[in-house]
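quick one before i forget lol
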Amino acid sequence: MKRLDAGRVEALSGSAEGTSASVRWALAGLSLSMLLSSLGTSTANVGLPTLAQVFSASFQQVQWIVLAYLLAITTLIVSVGRLGDMIGRRRLLLSGISLFTVASVLCGLAPTLWLLIAARAAQGLGAATMMALTMAFVGETVPKARTGSAMGLLGTMSSIGTALGPSLGGLLLAGPGWRAIFLVNAPLGVLALFLARSLPPDRRDEKSGRGRFDHVGTLLLALTLGAYALAMTVGRGSFGPLGIVLLLAALLGVGLFVRAEARAASPLIRLAVFRDPLLSASLGTSALVSTVMMTTLVVGPFYLSRALGLGEALVGLVLSVGPLVAALTGVPAGRIADRFGAQRMTVAGLAGVAVGCGALSLTPVTLGVAGYIVPLVVTTAGYAVFQTANNTAVMADVGPDQRGVISGVLNLSRNLGLVTGASVMGAVFALASDTTDVTTAHPGAVAHGMRITFAVAAMLIVAAIALAVGGRTLARRRPGG
């Protein structure tokens, strides 16, 4: 039995049998896990108007169906990554998939709005586990030379989930009803659980498993991230007294967290890892790029409907172009990263995003839909290359005892960027459109607001390029760099 297990581990850790059936089944399980966590957000968004009617609730109340899921992921993704490093990633991933599946069923059966919100929070915890540990497992399932391809596959599945969610949610709403939006995850979760059993068994000799779990650091980080996420989402870019208090609480939480981690014998996050200029640059660029990519989802619908006069169906079709491009370019981007180097392709991907945002900031209304779609394709393709290469650069050289927590931090940087983009870039758009309600703004004002917002986005990407190049330069200057 021991000989069989040893052979299985060898096959799944990058030996000559790296393309074996076990690896393919394991990657299928990881890919489906990433797809499900992405579907969990996009399918629920489209059902909010219906759920408001079903539960006779206001929009402010039903938005907690999305916020509960988002907050659970944002506040806990680093903690579950660290816990996986300590107790075993395979065991925790299987538990996370099981929790996601059961919570999906509870969502579909919920008799009241607040029970639905509670079940969504549990579903978000399962999704946080799946997101944090899927990337951590790549280093144990494929050879290092194929890490980029595997990361590209995971990115593709995430994009497919984002693109498929609205259309799938719409079909389920029109057919079986709102409960099916959540229940559809159950059979997919069972399949993911079956496939994930092909993952390599947990290793008991990892030094991280000897330490104690950092409860204080976990609580402080969760409270800090929760305060920041609430400040960014509830205020919707308009920071009143509550938003300011939440931001101040988040700032205080950062200080307390850093102090607690510096004193902890077994910290949640080893602060020394941020001294690595490549890792710090990768996390910073990930947050900036995610902030910019959220702009396409925040600004796009208003520009297409108000400035170009498209109907709801056409707006949805145009918006699906971005995730579709990301899905189609994910795997090729991974192969390119493997061939030409992850760090080099990170900068190339950022350059593509900058070009696309720059074009959107200059496009005239007279070019119509094509004037929006073509730059959007360039932006999204660049993002796919960046995300795959950046994830590969971060995860390729991470030690086994830190894969879970670093994967969690990397996902956290992306989530914080998305949350910030939805709020801050939405506020920039409203300010540039010279109105507090863009739904009734003049088409010309909306077009002007779109161009200004994407000009700001382009500047953020230029800053991201400088950060990436600077991190690479500093890494070379370090001893042994």
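fyi The two ends are 43 Å apart (CA to CA).
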